[in-house]
Amino acid sequence: MNETERNEILADLRIYLGITWEDPDLDKKLTGLAERGISEINRAGGQEYDYTKEAAPRQLLFDYVRYGRDDALDQWEINFGRALRTLAADTAVSAES
Fold first, then answer.
1. Burial (CB count <10 Å: 0-12, 13-18, 19+), residue 91
2. Are 69 and 29 in contact (CB under 8 A)?
3. Under the phi-then-psi rule, with left for phi > 0, alpha for psi from -120 to 50, and beta for the rest, what region is 18?
4. CA-CA distance, 86 to 56, in Å (whole number)?
5. Quick one: pLDDT band at residue 97, thresholds 50, 70, 90?
6. Which domain holds residue 24?
7. Residues 76/68, Cβ–Cβ less than 8 Å
């Protein structure tokens, strides 16, 4: 992910999470969570996704960051495991086509 995409995703995450104040430390935390979430979702799905497009990987990422910000990542995979499996299955079907 390039710097422009990283900044775009961070700005969109701030909107999604309702963050209207400036906080460089929080931005650093959100960016780190986003990078870890991207790695996790790409690993689960078996490919690299475009997180700038409104699609399932982006929603999974935003929810990953939301759960991470709230110190609840242990619940994220439980609550989004089905969506991750669906993403992986869709990726496998697309690869076969």
1. middle
2. yes
3. left
4. 10
5. low
6. 3-96
7. yes
The CA R_g of the chain, rounded to the nearest whole Å, is 14
Amino acid identity, position 64: Y
0.70 exceeded by pTM:
yes
Domain count, the chain: 1
Structure tokens at 1: 């992910």
- Residue 25's pLDDT is 97
Model pLDDT, residue 53: 94
Six-digit token string for 49? 């996704």
Q: Which residue has the higher pLDDT, 13 or 92?
A: 13
Please name the helix (run of DSSP H) or strand (run of DSSP E) that holds residue 57, with its range, or none.
Answer: helix 56-69
Over residues 68-92, the mean pLDDT reads: 94
